[in-house]
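Notes to self, Nitrous oxide reductase accessory protein NosL:
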Amino acid sequence: MKRSPFARRRLLAAGLAASGLLGAGLLWARQRSPAAAAALLVDDFCVLAPPLAYEPSSGLGLLQARPIPGDARCPVCGMFPARAPEWAAQLIFSDGATQFFDSPVSMLIYLQDVGRYARGRSVTEVAARYVRDAGGNRAQPGAWLDAGQAVFVSGSDALGPMRAGNLPAFADRAAALAFAQRRGGQAMRLAEVPRSLLKQLDPRAHLGH
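result:
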């Protein structure tokens, strides 16, 4: 339905007003306490970043890791994963649709409540999960690793794309332990990552970004 210029102006004004209210709420909450501001942002802010459909013409297998599109956004924190490819993660649904993330932490938070970020989807549809080998860098990112086989390091001094703690991933325990010896932290498998740690590392809590 085509709207009149007057109707469009009213909708735009309403949208700006809503944005202003959210901004004011965050400012008020931040002045009271950082925790209150983080809670408001987590509860009220949602990024529109639906999974990207599988393209058979890409030449990639249905569940094969994909290159990160420059305009892809993380549905959890809103960042652009392609800007820090050495930290990126991705998961692929059984139909080949792919969701990209700025970091392993964001992917694990997403997996706790898939339907919240991708309407109509469920965790049972997730067929593949990939993280980057932390041995790479922005110029030459590490290989994609099966997240279920990777070994993560928690509590190191490695800062993720939001300049906060994260979970760098490695292809095997020896590499993870060597990293932890240099930079601190402890090695753990995916199934060993506790919910309490994900809550602590939740990127939406770092409002200074």
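- The chain has a mean pLDDT of 83.
- Residues 47-205 form one domain.
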